[in-house]
Design a protein that fits this description.
Layout (H helix, E strand, L loop, with lengths): L1 H16 L5 H32 L4 H21 L15
């Protein structure tokens, strides 16, 4: 039983050694993380739209990739007919 009483005292001693962030630091770092997330999401969105729009004009380059993607998309479409078509509107006959 004597050892059980020592654990809380040790925990308190270790917690005093911890360098705790101030409220200002916490808000600053949270803002930095939020901005980084927005930037990464924007880069992903831009690259997706660029590749979908510009590389679809090069059929010789993308024939194999498009065929594989089309087959996968059709398989997914058959499994879930309400799934949105992302990069392959030509499968809808548009």
């Amino acid at each position: 039983m004597g050892k059980d009483c020592e654990i809380p005292a040790e925990v308190v001693a270790e917690m005093k050694k911890v360098s705790w962030s101030t409220r200002r630091e916490l808000v600053t770092y949270t803002g930095v993380v939020g901005i980084a997330i927005v930037v990464v999401c924007a880069l992903i969105w831009i690259s997706r739209h660029y590749f979908c729009a510009h590389l679809s004009g090069y059929p010789a380059l993308l024939d194999g990739v498009r065929d594989m993607a089309d087959k996968e998309e059709l398989n997914l479409r058959q499994a879930n007919p309400h799934r949105a078509m992302v990069c392959h509107p030509h499968l809808l006959g548009v």
